[in-house]
Design a protein that fits this description.
- Keywords: Amino-acid biosynthesis, Arginine biosynthesis, Cytoplasm, NADP, Oxidoreductase.
- Helices cover about 30% and strands about 20% of the residues.
- It has about 300 residues and is of the alpha/beta class.
- It folds into two domains: about 120 residues, NAD(P)-binding Rossmann-like Domain (Rossmann fold, 3-Layer(aba) Sandwich); about 160 residues, Dihydrodipicolinate Reductase, domain 2 (2-Layer Sandwich).
- Helix 3 links the parallel strand 3 and strand 4.
- Helix 1 packs across helix 9.
- The longest helix is centred in the middle third of the chain and has 15 residues.
- Bound molecules: NADPH dihydro-nicotinamide-adenine-dinucleotide phosphate and N-acetyl-L-glutamyl 5-phosphate (X2W).
Length: about 300
Amino acid sequence: MAYNIFIDGEAGTTGLQIRERLAPREDIKLIQIAPERRKDSDARREAFSQADVAILCLPDAAAIEAAELTQDLDVRLIDASTAHRVDDDWVYGFPELSADMRDHISEAQLVSNPGCYATGAIALLAPLIEAGLVDDDELISINAVSGYTGGGKALIAEYEDGSAPAHFFYGLNQAHKHIPEIMTYAGLTTQPVFSPSVGSFAQGMVVQIPLHLDDERSLKALFDALADHYAGQQFVQMIAMDQVGSRIVPTALNGTNQMQIGVCGSDDNGCGTVFAVLDNLGKGASGAAVQNLNIMLDLDEAQGL
Ligand SMILES: NC(=O)C1=CN([C@@H]2O[C@H](COP(=O)(O)OP(=O)(O)OC[C@H]3O[C@@H](n4cnc5c(N)ncnc54)[C@H](OP(=O)(O)O)[C@@H]3O)[C@@H](O)[C@H]2O)C=CC1
Ligand SMILES: CC(=O)N[C@@H](CCC(=O)OP(=O)(O)O)C(=O)O
């Protein structure tokens, strides 16, 4: 038996990558609408009504409209946009966040897919706060670099026509759209200072959080808390401390649904960093959406990944 899946926004950056992962699968039948009708509410509603699950790969306003369009339909939704990530009616689709998360996702009618930067930041902070190594009101900084596909079709066009700079920082007013979900799911009560940036590579991401160390918060204590939390996870893995090397490369996991987590620094100097490497379009978007879809359909979580 095949499940009917509709990708709303399948021609966009995230949608295309989800389609690439689902199209070869025999257990999935993709419902498609003619490209020229992709913004036509009647055509989309018809597609929603035929689908078991629809994946929204749309700007926030269109995702909100899609959720309204489907309110009286049976279709289950995965929303890749920011629109519903801190909405109590939606389950946050981060299977590795806690032991009961997969059950919540599996039973959910509405699942919001985490943001790319948020995936890295929450993956680092939530276990450390739970272990008591970071206080929930600690003054935290989050530094990150993303490939330019993170900005969707508009930013991709700037890089492809050569008009974009090699590297730029943004989010300078500290109102980036991922901050609410980072605070909510990491468990931070004080807003972190978030400094995202974009480099001249298509895909890939590093999220880094600098931390001052002491006798209790040593590099080993940080590593052990993260390793305990992610033990047995197939898509989130620790980099052994002696394997971190001298460079962290954002493109290292491109094309995969993996996220790697590492710890580096100097106990002697009292300065350390925890970091996450992921593909912004893999575990940061399309891969995560497929993983959530598999969990919702009670399939092997790694199917097609
Ligand atoms: N890129 C990334 O790394 C990540 C993106 N996301 C999120 O995924 C969502 C999609 O982003 P992304 O794929 O990058 O964006 P893109 O701009 O690449 O694609 C968006 C797609 O949605 C279509 N669209 C726009 N409005 C409507 C509408 N009213 N009805 C139907 N289709 C519409 C667009 O059509 P048209 O061709 O006309 O523009 C386009 O094909 C966003 O909410 C984004 O925040 C999440 C995680 C990471
Ligand atoms: C490089 C870049 O511009 N990145 C986007 C975030 C990626 C994205 O669209 O994220 P979500 O939809 O998952 O929130 C931004 O900072 O707004």
